[in-house]
Amino acid sequence: MPKERGSKVIASNRRARHDYAVLDTYEAGIALVGTEVKSLREGRASLVDAFATVDDGEVWLRNVHIAEYEHGTWTNHESRRKRKLLLHKGEIEKLIGKTKEGGLSLVPLSLYFKDGKVKVELALAKGKKSYDKRQDLAKRDAQREMSRAFGRALKGRR
User: Where is this region: Disordered (predicted)?
Assistant: First the structure.
C-alpha cells in the first residue's frame, strides 16, 4: 500500500476564529488508539467546545468528539476522552509561559491528516469581546461590498 502524501482536513473549528483573536499557531501530533484513527478516516470528528490544557508539563486535548468506530468491538474507544498532544519540549515550555501570562487559551483550529498521520492545528488565542466581534463583522462586510463594487465596475468597462 503506497504511503499517503499531502493533507486532508477531517474537522475544523470555524467558531474559534470568530470567538478568539489568534496570536500564534502550532502543529501537533495526537496520541490515538486504532479505532480512533479508523473513525477519523471516515471523517467522524467534531471540534465544537474543544480546548487544550497544559498539565504537569504535558499538553492535553479535551472535549474533542471522535465517534466510536462502527465496526469496532469491545475494544472501541471512548468518544470524548482526553488525548495527549505531541509537541517538542521547547514548544510546551513556551505554551506554559504564555498561558500562565494571562488571558490566553489553547484552541484547536483544525484536525487533519498530513502524510498519513493525524495532526491538530493548535492556536494560542485571546478571547474577543462582543464589540470586537461586531467590528470584525463590519470590516468583513465592508470588504465584501468593496470587492463586489469593484467587480461590477470591471464588468461595466468591458
Answer: 134-158
Write the pLDDT tens digit of every residue in 104-142: 888 999 889 888 888 999 988 887 777 777 887 888 888
Q: Distance between terminal CA atoms of the chain?
A: 53
- Residues 110, 158, single domain; the answer is no
Distance CA 155, CA 87 (A): 50
Please tell me whether residues 70 and 107 are part of one structural domain.
yes
What letter would DSSP give residue 66? E
Q: Rounded distance, CA 55 to CA 96, Å? A: 9
The DSSP 8-state label assigned to residue 103 in this structure reads S
Is 66 found in the same domain as 96? yes
Beta strands in the chain, from DSSP E residues, in sequence order:
7-12, 20-30, 45-46, 51-55, 58-62, 65-66, 83-86, 104-114, 117-127
